[in-house]
Write a structure and sequence with these properties.
two-stranded antiparallel ribbon, Arc Repressor Mutant, subunit A, Fumarase C, Chain A, domain 2, mainly alpha, Fumarase C, Chain B, domain 1
């Protein structure tokens, strides 16, 4: 909505009456999209620089607008900027303030540009920068897991199938499975960065502009690889939103799976790990309990990210080309998904820093440990059955004593229930 010198909407001659208060309420998105202010100002600065280069506006006007936009950015950063719902969105709030600062020359900021290409440009710029923030948090999580794994190469734990004890494995090897998950997440986010790296600026509302603009100039300045090919597709394209939400959903799924596993490991039935008091809660009526609430929070949050993806799919499924008001909610959905995945990545990273593993749980049989979960070394077996190591070696070589060799290690372990079945189920001499 471009403002004339009388501060009226450009369509005011055709639409005589002001919108109802209810319409103003549903039409306003400033509470959501105000977080796009940096991208909006960046896009406008590059746009007027291009207009000046192409002799569409004068250098004097360019400098005047640039000074005004930078002042507005400073006001927002210092929390001195008033966001007015009457001006609908962040784009018009900034433009309105620009008129107040520099006068009618502010109108040139909209030359050869529609709100349609302005919005999609801002949104793509924000998605690019936000994806890089997620990547940084994934790196921090991976680094934390690798540190824990490095300290537990020799820690033996049961590997599970169907949640039944299957084979002894290195705890480090188990944890590195999680690293692989998050490495794939990084690739998914990176692939989306590649797909959205096309500059929308310059397609205007639908079919471009008659002004002699230079889209390759703005592409370079804004950090895109190339301009978009089709103007109609550009203003209606939200594939990059779907790809972003899908990447967030899969990442949240991985976090939820790990949270579920750690909850099981922390349970009294498994007792494989202990959580620091920093990351547990108590009970108002059962003082003996320490609950893994943050892990349960992570598990629950995944459902919200799945819902965000499905919401966007549902919005897009029935839309013809090109732009419709239905798309107003795309930023609300994406911002919510971004906030959730960032928070959950921070929480799971802190959880990993506050986990200790019960390293001795399989070395010696204990009364509070289920028999089926006991693993013994050679000395343990000799002590249990009062035999010498020579006899044990003979059983291994000649009689087929069941044993397990740790992956990538020479260490031999024996499962308690298998040993009992073997010793007392046959004549061993």
């Amino acid at each position: 909505m471009i403002k004339n010198k009388h501060n009226q909407a450009v369509w005011s001659k055709r639409i005589k009456k002001k919108p109802s208060l209810l319409f103003q309420e549903i039409g306003s998105s400033i509470d959501v999209d105000k977080r796009l202010f940096k991208e909006d100002i960046m896009g406008s600065l590059v746009h007027i620089e291009m207009l000046s280069k192409q002799k569409i506006i004068t250098s004097k006007i360019k400098k005047k607008i640039s000074k005004g936009l930078k002042k507005i950015e400073k006001e927002i950063l210092q929390k001195k900027f008033f966001f007015n719902k009457k001006h609908e969105d962040i784009h018009m709030n900034i433009e309105k303030r620009l008129f107040q600062l520099i006068g009618d020359d502010a109108g040139f900021v909209h030359t050869a540009r529609s709100r349609n290409d302005q919005v999609i440009t801002d949104f793509k710029l924000w998605t690019k920068s936000s994806t890089k923030k997620i990547d940084k948090k994934l790196n921090e999580l991976i680094k934390t897991i690798l540190k824990v794994a490095k300290n537990n190469v020799q820690t033996i734990m049961p590997g599970f199938t169907h949640l039944k004890n299957a084979q002894p494995v290195s705890l480090a090897h188990y944890f590195l499975a999680y690293v692989e998950m998050f490495q794939r997440d990084k690739k998914r986010f990176f692939n989306n960065l590649e797909n959205l790296n096309e500059n929308p600026l310059g397609v205007a509302a639908l079919s471009g502009t008659s002004f002699n603009i230079d889209r390759f100039f703005t592409t370079r300045k804004l950090g895109f690889k190339k301009p978009t090919n089709n103007s109609i597709d550009t203003v209606s394209d939200r594939d990059f939103v779907l790809d972003f939400l899908y990447a967030v959903s899969v990442c949240s799924l991985h976090i939820s799976r790990i949270a579920e596993e750690l909850i099981i490991w922390n349970s009294d039935g498994f007792n494989l790990i202990k959580l620091s008091d920093k990351v547990v809660t108590g009970s108002s009526i059962m003082p003996q309990k320490k609950n893994p609430d943050p892990l349960e929070y992570l598990r629950g949050k995944a459902g919200g990210t799945f819902g965000n993806l499905f919401s966007m799919l549902t919005i897009l499924k029935g839309l013809p080309l090109s732009y419709f008001k239905d798309l107003q909610d795309d930023k609300k959905i994406v911002f919510s998904a971004f906030d959730d995945v960032c928070l959950t990545l921070e929480v799971i990273t802190e959880m990993w820093s506050n986990i200790s593993f019960n390293k001795d749980i399989y070395k010696q049989p204990k009364k509070d440990i289920p028999i089926s979960m006991r693993f013994l070394n050679r000395k343990d077996v000799c002590d249990l059955f009062h035999i010498s190591k020579t006899t044990l070696y003979r059983y291994e070589k000649n009689v087929g004593l069941p044993k397990h060799q740790l992956l990538n290690s020479r260490k031999i372990l024996y499962k308690y229930d298998e040993l009992m079945e073997w010793f007392y189920g046959r004549d061993v001499g």
